[in-house]
Amino acid sequence: MIYLDTAATSLLKPETVAPAVLRAMGHMASPGRGGHVPAMEAAACCYRCREKAANLFHVAEPERVVLTFNATHGLNIAIRSLVRPGARVLISGYEHNAVTRPLHALRARLSVVNTPLYQPEAFLREAEARIGRADAVVCTQVSNVFGYILPVRELAALCRVQGKPLIVDASQSAGVLPLDFEALGADFVAMPGHKGLMGPQGTGLLLCKNDARPLLYGGSGSDSRAQDMPDYLPDRLEAGTPNVCGVAGLSAALDWLLANGTEVVRTAEWARLRALAEPLAASGRLRLFDSASEALQTGVLSVQPLAMDCDLFAQALAEAGVAVRSGLHCAPLAHLTAGTVERGTVRFSTSPFNSRLQMARAAEICEKILKKA
Length: 373
Hints:
Elements: E1 2-3, H1 17-27, H2 37-57, E2 65-68, H3 71-82, E3 88-92, H4 97-105, E4 109-113, H5 120-130, E5 136-140, H6 152-162, E6 166-169, H7 181-184, E7 188-192, E8 204-208, H8 244-260, H9 262-283, E9 286-289, E10 300-305, H10 310-319, E11 322-323, E12 325-327, H11 332-338, E13 345-349, H12 356-371
Parallel strand pairs: 1-11, 3-4, 3-5, 5-6, 6-7
Antiparallel strand pairs: 2-8, 7-8, 9-10, 10-13, 12-13
């Protein structure tokens, strides 16, 4: 199989991840739930994972790295902490449902910066014109549909000048693009463990500048007598037993990223993307949503067949051994902004563990399928 659905889940992972998960299953219990060796080893594993993430993302204190179950979990914590019901929130036109649905539940009044793909200057002009009327700002760093890299650092600078809190969705950028949390100045950055960080599903990280409101209430392994959640991070946001086995795998994946660097991932994914995009464009049978600039796009490519349904194309690829995703990708707002909501797209997303030979073979399979359409 040629796996090209990393934007959903990184099936291709460093070889150390799976053994770390298996070892945790047999050796680690629950952190903070006992002084015995398995519990203490679990606590040490979770702390090491925080330390590695703090190192990779330049977070001043490991305690400000909260372990979550996915990016959606972290985004809900961040949004519930900063956005009150009916608040005015500025968002990009490329947000995932993990952002828009929590805001909808709060009946937030949205101001959407729906500027065209791969035009960061237009995005910043529009954002600057609207930011003064917002109570908070939420923005994805990379569109999960199009791989479009939004100008989050410049947006963060606007937020600092205007005194507006900022939440960043790093679901598609963490592990791929450099992220300096302290320099960025965002209030929260949420990310999954199972995409660019190449850890297991059921893991995630929330980077916190300041305190946050708990989303879940329950046991934290600390301050058990009190009926309020602890007033300190990370315990305040980590109710219930964490996914220790997943955290062990994520910790191993972070070791790989710290040793190799996000630039290695970025360069490899971009090279694979271009190796795929160029023959697809040359075929003349697809509409490609891509940029020629590495500064504007990650290893995510959306396409629409000119003479075939997107779902049928994706299904044919699956039957031929190429794993992709079709549809709206849980981001209807992005499709509304790009004008693709009626048909959706077929999304190819690369990994540093894909080979050039796989890209050439995937392009050949695409051509063979499309010729029959």
